[in-house]
Amino acid sequence: MDKLEHIGIAVKNLEESNLLFAKLLGKAHYKIEEVESEGVRTSFFEIGDIKIELLEATRADSPIAKFIEKKGEGIHHLAFGVTNLENKMSEKTAQGFSLLSEKPKDGADNKRIVFIHPKTTNSVLVELCEEKG
Ligand code: ZN
Description:
Layout: E1 3-10, H1 14-25, E2 31-35, E3 40-47, E4 50-57, H2 63-71, E5 74-81, H3 85-94, E6 105-107, E7 111-116, E8 126-131
Parallel strand pairs: 1-4, 5-8
Antiparallel strand pairs: 1-5, 2-3, 3-4, 6-7, 7-8
Bound molecules: zinc ion (ZN).
């Protein structure tokens, strides 16, 4: 892994949470982006070298809706920036980690992403992300 790229936080209402985190961090979000395929609307805050990604479900079967139903709002995933995502996926699989998808998906913020199943990472959902070329 190259760096901790962002921390994903599941929220019920993106507008309200944008205001809350703007107050907390002392700066506004710098973008809002919907990822239709994942059923989420996201906003991003930059804080030092790390980003905070707020995630709101856009439909009932969104993974974020299911997460909030089960666990409530809160930290959803840690995202690590990598170079050569496919190599990193093979490496992590060979090490015994389970990936949630066989191929990278399109994520927010111009990234290709894949998740590692939390059952293999002490219940922490881990995202590997690579900047699209
Ligand atoms: Zn993320």
